[in-house]
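sanity check this fold:
=====
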Amino acid sequence: MLRFFRGITLDELSRKADVDPATLSRLERGLLKDTLGSRRIKEKVAKAVGVSSESLFGKSEDQL
């Protein structure tokens, strides 16, 4: 994930994005189902690293 390239730890990103570290870990491992809640989490993470959610995660099913 982008955080590795930017040298950001999981805990740092979880604080910056206001996302639980366990949830962020599941997101990185692809274990979150595509729901409205997970899309909001993806938006928060993308904003925290300064990119669009589409560029970081691709388009969601409802955007295709």
